[in-house]
């Protein structure tokens, strides 16, 4: 097994011929937040640290982690970590804008996420 590929170097992120014509629906979520709440979604190299930072912010009522984009329907964590599915790890935040501004969410995100690090991991 190539250790560099596991670290995200040299991974083939281009769709294969069978993936290019894939008919997997990957549209937006059709749920809506409760009255008075809003959703925001943030992509990071790893969602665990970013999610934990958001959970500590007053006004955030719910967090969810998952994957966005990519070529595989319903990928596992191992699939995404392989670097071959082209998915991004994301955190969706449900928040009360009267208690927590979107600017606050951006501040929390950028305080934890450094896109210049290996695999765009969190600090």
UniProtKB/TrEMBL annotation:
Gene3D superfamilies: Peptide methionine sulphoxide reductase MsrA (3.30.1060.10)
Signal peptide: none
Top-rank taxon: Eukaryota
GO biological process, one term: cellular response to oxidative stress
Reaction catalysis annotation: [thioredoxin]-disulfide + L-methionine + H2O = L-methionine (S)-S-oxide + [thioredoxin]-dithiol; L-methionyl-[protein] + [thioredoxin]-disulfide + H2O = L-methionyl-(S)-S-oxide-[protein] + [thioredoxin]-dithiol
InterPro entries: Met_Sox_Rdtase_MsrA_dom, Met_Sox_Rdtase_MsrA_sf, MsrA_MetSO_reductase
EC number: 1.8.4.11
An example molecular function term from Gene Ontology annotations: peptide-methionine (S)-S-oxide reductase activity
Keyword tags: Oxidoreductase
A Gene Ontology cellular-component term: cytoplasm
Family membership noted in the UniProt record: Belongs to the MsrA Met sulfoxide reductase family.
NCBIfam families named among the record's database cross-references: msrA
Protein name: peptide-methionine (S)-S-oxide reductase
Species classification: Eukaryota, Viridiplantae, Streptophyta, Embryophyta, Tracheophyta
């Amino acid at each position: 097994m190539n250790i560099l590929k596991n670290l995200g170097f040299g991974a083939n992120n281009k769709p294969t011929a069978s993936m290019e014509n894939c008919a997997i629906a990957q549209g937006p979520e059709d749920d809506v937040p409760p009255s008075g709440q809003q959703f925001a979604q943030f992509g990071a190299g790893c969602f665990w640290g970013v999610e934990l930072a958001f959970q500590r912010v007053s006004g955030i009522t719910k967090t969810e982690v998952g994957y966005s984009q990519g070529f595989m329907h319903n990928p596992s964590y191992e699939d995404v970590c392989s670097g071959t599915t082209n998915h991004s790890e994301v955190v969706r935040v449900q928040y009360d804008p009267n208690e927590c501004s979107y600017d606050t969410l951006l501040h929390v995100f950028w305080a934890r996420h450094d896109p210049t690090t290996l695999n765009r991991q969190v600090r």
